[in-house]
Amino acid sequence: MQQIFHEIQVNTEGQGLYDFTNKTTSWLNKQKIYNGILNINILHTSASLIIQENADPDVLYDIKNFFNKLVPMDNKLYKHTTEGKDDMPSHIKSALTNNQLTLSIKNKKLMLGTWQGLYLFEHRIEKHTRILSHHFIGD
Amino acid sequence: MQQIFHEIQVNTEGQGLYDFTNKTTSWLNKQKIYNGILNINILHTSASLIIQENADPDVLYDIKNFFNKLVPMDNKLYKHTTEGKDDMPSHIKSALTNNQLTLSIKNKKLMLGTWQGLYLFEHRIEKHTRILSHHFIGD
Amino acid sequence: MQQIFHEIQVNTEGQGLYDFTNKTTSWLNKQKIYNGILNINILHTSASLIIQENADPDVLYDIKNFFNKLVPMDNKLYKHTTEGKDDMPSHIKSALTNNQLTLSIKNKKLMLGTWQGLYLFEHRIEKHTRILSHHFIGD
Q1: Which of A128, C27, C57, C124 falls 20 to 30 Å from B139 in CA-CA distance?
Q2: Partner C contacted by B1 (CB < 8 A)
Q3: What is the pTM of this model?
Q4: Which of B48, A15, A131, A37 is nearest to C116 (CA)?
């Protein structure tokens, strides 16, 4: 059994879903791995991770829009307001989605459905550099 | 360390929670495993996975009902409408729940609480065949 | 490869977020481990697990408050009401957050962002003793 650690950087420019599937798979393809688990963690609390449909960009728009309506950027609703109107909603949206994805690799291939992509869900309105820890454990 | 891959099929007949705990444990019982991690992924973006109470069917009804009220099947709310009124809400409900469960196995036994069951949460209204990838890594 | 199982107990006194990061890391520090995966499961369906900001207590208040507004403790909304007005909302809040966290350990250190803490999210209003299964697999 071997373990490999890696970090992938995603630069975000405002709220929305950023597909990082290719960054992950092109790194995986360079490793000498066959079968195992890939644990991806986002080391931030105002952006999160989701697996979503990668076919129609409207899906990504609708998801962003739904979460903005569900968790309004309205400081009157929150006590924690010092970091901007988008900060507390970001923490809540993170709680509603995922901080981490645990994926399987079989025969050198990341197991995802045909229509599934890996997305970073940015909840802040300003530019950010996000770090995604990648940890492979397997053969 | 060994790794075992398996697929479990769940046939769904409309929205709701489908208990697949027995399918998973009866497969596990046939394997020569002792301790390890079981990573379960659903390879679809319009159905998801949750761990829920397995005692009272009303709990399952209330969960389905809550999510239908939270994410209405109303095409006026979404841009992605070509696949039916239940499709975009399905993607959102998947984002709000889980695409994957990572469970522990100890002394040949899946570690779940007394009242916990494994459920596929179907978000589409028509019949579907859902594939759940099972990946065991351990001893 | 080795595997270690452990249980951590968290005593809760009503709804809210309980930081158990120190309980987890002080246990980890006593183990002879270097790199691996730590799988944490909550063996209950009316409390859940989230990773959240550990700096401002107002964040924790706002999260609790948001979920109480999103999932009202109002028996008229649910069929499952026999266990109290907070029980069905607890199951729904669990479905909206996580039953389990899968974390990476690198060079003996739990990989978390600077502002990230591990929280048990208690959804019941009475006192409870919650068991968190910890399972390490690695070297």
Answers
A1: C27
A2: yes
A3: 0.98
A4: A131
